[in-house]
Recover the amino acids of this structure.
């Protein structure tokens, strides 16, 4: 008797539209490949590979970190697993290593879903459904969440693609980031400290409202107070000296964005060092499950029983 096996990243879903092609892996509903013509717009990974650095995954029921893995909600202290043990935090939620099942698909779109089961670190049942849809303007991902529990549930979401602007090294890419405030974090554990205007807090590093080359700047920070158009849409652009690039757009449902330049402690000896910029629109700030500890709006969502929430973002070639 033989047993059928799937690649390590799960079932592969390929969608196409015009010059765009995307491959979504069912583990974590992860964006594994995104191409426009012969250009890779993200740092991809192999189908039969355990995904590194949360590449392309869907973050839920929280993005970013819960400091010390501990939070209090509705009077109950809850302890989540420390999935970032080197910093003693609970990182990027629970959905990244869950297999998502196909709900619907077309040539240019696929919808996947899973249900997060109640557990010691998150005692609520929440259905998470995500649709990836290609069109002439790029790849749009929409995440929908519904609280299936009898009590209110804290919730947050976001994506985790590592963008590639073009063929030049990352240091030569230009970043345009429409954010007026940056969240200061501790240098060792990346725990939130305080929110600052970018113009007053190391502006050469953090004020990217006007496009400037990244150079050797290292970022692993959350930004907010986003500049948007009349429709409430924020736009982040990465461009290559050759003139090509990639942009991410998102709506008011995500008032925060994490930007990470992929720096590794062992530097260039690590092939993953600075080979893409993670751009993560987020519905809430880092450590939002401990929102009461901070003097700024961390954007924590609370889903009432039966309530639904949706957020979207789009990646486009330039």
């Amino acid at each position: 008797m033989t047993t059928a096996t799937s690649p390590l990243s799960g079932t592969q879903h390929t969608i196409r539209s015009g010059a765009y092609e995307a491959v979504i892996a069912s583990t974590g509903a992860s964006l594994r490949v995104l191409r426009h013509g012969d250009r890779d717009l993200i740092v991809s990974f192999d189908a039969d590979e355990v995904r590194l650095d949360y590449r392309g995954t869907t973050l839920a029921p929280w993005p970013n970190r819960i400091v010390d893995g501990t939070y209090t909600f509705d009077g109950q202290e809850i302890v989540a697993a420390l999935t970032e043990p080197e910093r003693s935090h609970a990182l990027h939620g629970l959905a990244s290593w869950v297999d998502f099942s196909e709900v619907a698909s077309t040539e240019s779109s696929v919808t996947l879903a899973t249900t997060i089961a109640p557990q010691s670190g998150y005692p609520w049942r929440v259905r998470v459904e995500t649709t990836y849809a290609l069109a002439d303007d790029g790849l749009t991902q929409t995440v929908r969440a519904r609280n299936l529990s009898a009590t209110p549930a804290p919730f947050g979401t976001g994506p985790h693609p590592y963008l590639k602007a073009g063929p030049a090294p990352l240091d030569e890419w230009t970043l345009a980031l429409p954010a007026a405030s940056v969240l200061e974090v501790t240098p060792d554990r990346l725990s939130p400290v305080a929110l600052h205007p970018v113009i007053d807090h190391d502006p050469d590093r953090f004020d990217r409202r006007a496009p400037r080359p990244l150079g050797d700047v290292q970022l692993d920070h959350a930004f907010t107070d986003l500049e948007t158009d009349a429709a409430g849409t924020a736009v982040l652009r990465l461009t290559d000296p050759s003139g090509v690039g990639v942009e991410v757009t998102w709506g008011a449902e995500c008032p925060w964005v994490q930007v990470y330049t992929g720096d590794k402690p062992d530097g260039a000896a690590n092939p993953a060092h600075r080979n893409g910029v993670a751009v993560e629109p987020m519905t809430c700030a880092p450590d939002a499950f401990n929102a009461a500890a901070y003097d700024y709006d961390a954007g924590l969502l609370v889903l009432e029983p039966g309530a639904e929430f949706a957020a979207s973002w789009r990646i486009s070639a330039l």
